[in-house]
Amino acid sequence: MKTAKIIALYGDNDEKRVSPLQEKAVPSEYKDARSPYRRDYARLIHSPAFRRLQGKTQLFPGVESDFFRNRLTHSLEVAQIAEGIALQLNDQDQYFKKNKIDIDLVQLAALAHDLGHPPFGHNGEYALDDCMRDFGGFEGNAQTLRILSRLEKREGGEDSQVGLNLTYRSLAAVLKYDTKIPLKDSKRKPREKPVKGYYSSEADLVANVKKAVLQGHKASKFKVLECQIMDLADDIAYSTYDLEDALKAGFLTPLEVLHLANTPSFLEKVTPKVEKGVGGPVSPAEVREIYIETFGSVVRDKLQSVDLSKPLDMVSRISEIYSTSKALSCNGRLRTSFTSQLVAEFMSGVSAVYNGKIPALSEIVLARPTRIKVEALKHLAYEALIMSPRLKLVEYRGRDIVKGIFKAIDSRERAGHLLLPDDWRETYMEQQGDEVARKRLICDFVAGMTDRYAVEFYSRLSSVDNGLSFFKPM
Question: Per the database record, which ranges form the HD domain (predicted)?
Answer without folding.
Answer: 71-239
